[in-house]
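We include the entry.

. . .
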Amino acid sequence: MSESAPRRRSRASAGLPPITADKIIDAAVELTAQHGLDGWSIRQISTKLDVWPGVVAHHVGDREAVVMAVTDRVIARIPVPDVSVPWRDWFSALMLEGRTVLRQYPGVARRLVVVGPNVPSALPTIDKGIKVLLGAGFGEHATEIYRYLLNSAFMLVAVEDDRDSYFPNARADMGRAMARFAADTSRPGLAAAGAQAVARSEDPERLAAEDLAFFRLTMERSLDGAQALLSA
């Protein structure tokens, strides 16, 4: 009689806690923070939890289902202002808080812009945001203004994510290229860009501050654009 294949011990018999959908999503969120939304696989989740890949599928689904769950979990962490806040302050707060949260989970911002916030935790934010715009007088334009403001903000976050993940040296390379024109008086536009490149530090903290300042600039000009439509 041939020997049977060794049986894998159950988690209970091994003294391990049971696997749940929440534990799987927790692991995926952690991997997203470490490697980005596109930087992990179902096998990596199963290895992290010491289970077979099929267990992930059983409790949550395929990779797309896990990605949706991660996106839902991340969006739920973005604080949403009260609808009593004036529309401009409401969106300023949401976009700034959104950037803070999304930058911790690279790739989620890009998904929101490209695929859309089609997860349950986004629904209250959409409802409140459009309600605020309706109350401010945007009327039939409220929905498109909501999309315009958040896409403008989160597309910039997606660019920051992609640059850090895929092109970490791009900004320094661009700075060196532009710095060559700092003294070129025949091309004042390039000279101005070159002078700024020379003045820019490569210190990570200062670069992070510059990124935030540029985000605020973009956000404010987007709000100005919406304000112009409202005034018209």
